[in-house]
Amino acid sequence: MTKAAFPNNNTGNRSESYLSKINFNYQIIFVCLSYALAAFDFLIYLHIADVISSVFFPSSDNALVTQLKIIGLMSVGFLSRPLGAILIGRYGDIKGRKPAFLISIGLLSATTLLTAFLPTYAQVGIIAPILFVFIRMLQGIAFGAHAPLSWVFVAEHTKQTKLATYCSLAVAGGIFGSVISVIFAKVLVGTFELQALLDYGWRIPAVMGGVMSGLILLMWHHVRETPVYVNHQKKLQDNPDLLTVNSFSNIASATFLSCAISFVRASLIMVVMILLPKLIALKFYTQPNFATFASLFALVTQIVGCIFYGILVDKIGTAKTFMLASLALTLQVWIFYAYLINGEGVFTLAMYGLVGFCTGMIGLCTAIFIQLFPTNIRLLSVSVTYNCISALLGAALPFLLFKLTDYVSFAPAIYLSIIGITALIIGWHLVHRETFGESYKSNTKEKRYTL
User: Fold this and answer.
1) Can you give the pTM of this predicted structure?
2) What is the pLDDT of residues 363-415, one digit of tens each?
3) Is residue 442 exposed (0-12), middle (13-18) or buried (19+ Cβ within 10 Å)?
4) Which of 172, 356, 391, 443 is most deeply packed, by most CB within 10 A?
5) What is the reported pLDDT for 441?
6) How many helices (H) and strands (E) does the chain have?
7) For residue range 218-230, what is the model confidence (pLDDT) as tens digits?
8) DSSP per position, 310-379
9) Taking Cα atoms as reference points, which of 244, 268, 248, 270 lies closest to residue 257?
């Protein structure tokens, strides 16, 4: 017998492993790009709200126009997200993650592109704001499903030992989309004169966002259904290397815990990235454009924080990393406010960037509550929980914090401390659960952490 009669199995295994790694990397790139573009499509018009207001909602004593203005610019996109979570989330649990991606990306691309061709108030009157509100509602439905779908898709492709790392990377992709939307809005407003923006400039981001999302659809054909979902559909035995549900979690406890984690995550995003720069400018820092630059810098450092905490999980585990991040956030918030009260303002932006870095723990929030639900209801449960909490906070937090800040300048620090303590309690709860602590692979003796 010659050596050729005995194929080299090790070589074959290495080839299969290499191809598998390429495929996995492709899935991650797809999710990060699609999540970034989805965030851009959904957020861009919030950053040029003044222009959009003038185009679709001119000053008027008409009560209907005024009401549509408030709903269209601020509320409908967020309030319609739970509807998308229910409809597309349930569809994704029944038909698969891949077809659910097609619906969410396709709807985002279509609604964003349609926005570019909407008539203005000057052209068709009251029909213009009605059409804008309707398109914005559809866009909220698509985005409400897309964000949780991205987390679930990554989690169900990833080995359990790398779950937090890759979930954090996917979240960083969405944050990158927010960064691009802020920069693009700034460049757009700085490049065009006001009249040009009102005439045609506001349509440019819609065209770009719609076309780019359409290109992402071309990648969709090369995306594979998640191994976890395929195993579930074929009623195969779970692969211990892939995502599993922690045994202590019944539906009631899983729902309660996911609500608490969603509360932490949504609060950090809304307060630190959206409200806090304006609240600081209101009480401490009157430099022009501070709010914009602070939000942008905090978003960049949040990306770094997501990646850092995701990597740290491999060293000490998700629950312990979550507790450490909670302590760091609470401490840094009070250091920052102490500096605002007593400092000269030289390092305000840098100090705020450190707060943004600490909020990188939102990637860990994603990794935790994805593990709480079984495959057949995972997407629906994660989507509905997170989007409902986000909608409630979106309606209440701006009013609450602006009102409290009028009386107590450091009210946001108190609120963020409550969030930090809540996260610390969650982490303490998880690290003391047997299925969420340290475990070891008996075959390889490789240290492994779940939560």
Assistant:
1) 0.84
2) 999 988 888 888 888 999 999 999 999 888 887 888 888 888 888 888 899 99
3) exposed
4) 356
5) 36
6) 20, 2
7) 888 788 888 888 8
8) HHHHHHH-HHHHHHHHHHHHHHHHHHHHHHHHHS-STTHHHHHHHHHHHGGGHHHHHHHHHTTS-TTTHH
9) 248
